[in-house]
Design a protein that fits this description.
It contains 17 helices and 6 strands. With 329 residues, it is an alpha/beta fold. It has one domain. The two termini are 39 Å apart.
Length: 329
């Protein structure tokens, strides 16, 4: 579950603003020492604050936009600030576009094994009664019928249970995040949209553990809903005040709150998650961005905001390649 929870915190920044996702902020739980630790880490992080950046090299220009993948009405204001960048771009690069979405849907239809247990024991046959009862309660709270949860691959169910129930209304209503908004704007303007990675990249990462390890993650997914909600409230505030590195560093502290893990184990999983879901993908994306920059003068790169800051963030990696990085006006 920690991998799933951090995947959302890091990559998706999936924090919709709804009346149900308000209230206590996880940062209020932090001790003075933990708050100081977060502040020091943020201060040491390159490009720690900001959602819009410009990278220039000779006559080439890249506009980078930190996105959130789930709807929030305040995203419309941010969308309006980048309309001009989209309309004048040669290409928009995103984590996944409509083509990748279609590929995923086709793959799932052709191979249910991607998400569901089609052979062997189902989850209630594998888990003890008390744990399965807790899983059913958590699934029902997220509008997942227990009979469906019983047949889900444990990594996939862990991911779903990492979502606090308060965010589900917008998701079920089909509300879209900033990435989808910008894809729509690019298509309306006739701007090509291209993906930075294959559609199955994240699924491959999430499925790489064996079944037993995935079951361990599922047991850890039964974290208290109030803690999940508090983390989303913290992410919301940090995102819309553009304190992006703070989201990550608070998540690092939050790892210690996951039940069943020692502090050492939590930090080990955290480091693995950082490398697999963030750093490794960033390094792969740089190759794609550079290839597009060799063909075009004006790029827009719109990705989850957590991909921008840090020593292994896209901004630092571009700077190392000779790009000059400045905040967007």
């Amino acid at each position: 579950m920690l991998r799933s929870f951090l995947a959302l915190a890091l990559v998706a920044l999936a924090s919709p603003a709804t009346a149900l996702c308000t209230g206590a902020d996880f940062r209020d739980r932090l001790s003075d020492a933990d708050s100081a630790t977060v502040a020091r880490a943020v201060e040491a992080t390159p490009y720690a604050q900001g959602l819009r950046w410009v990278a220039t090299r000779k006559d080439d220009r890249i506009t980078l936009i930190g996105t959130m993948h789930v709807f929030d009405p305040r995203l419309e204001e941010l969308r309006a600030t980048v309309t001009g960048d989209i309309q004048t771009a040669d290409v928009l690069l995103v984590e996944a576009g409509d083509a990748e979405q279609a590929q995923m849907e086709a793959a799932v239809a052709a191979d249910p094994d991607l998400f569901f247990i089609t052979e062997g024991p189902t989850l209630p046959e594998t888990l003890d009664d008390a744990t399965w009862s807790a899983v059913m309660d958590a699934a029902r709270a997220r509008s997942i019928p227990p009979f469906m949860a019983a047949k889900m691959e444990p990594w996939y169910l862990s991911l779903l249970l990492s979502l606090p129930p308060c965010i589900l209304p917008e998701m079920l209503a089909g509300q879209e995040g900033l990435d989808a908004m910008l894809i729509d704007d690019a298509q309306d303007a006739g701007i090509p949209v291209r993906a930075l990675e294959p559609w199955d990249t994240l699924f491959t990462i999430m499925r790489k553990d064996d079944f037993d390890a995935q079951m361990d993650d599922l047991r850890l997914a039964l974290i208290a809903p109030d803690l999940q909600s508090e983390m989303f409230v913290a992410m919301l505030d940090a995102y819309f005040t553009e304190r992006i590195a703070e989201i990550w560093e608070v998540s690092r502290i939050a790892a210690a709150y996951v039940p069943g893990l020692s502090e050492q184990e939590a930090q080990a999983v955290f480091a693995e998650t950082e490398e697999n879901l963030l750093n490794r993908r960033n390094r792969a994306w740089i190759d794609v961005i550079e290839a597009e920059a060799a063909l075009h003068d004006r790029l827009v790169v719109a990705v989850g905001a957590a991909h921008l800051p840090g020593h292994q963030g896209l901004l630092a990696l571009l700077a190392a390649d000779g790009w000059t990085i400045t905040p967007a006006p």
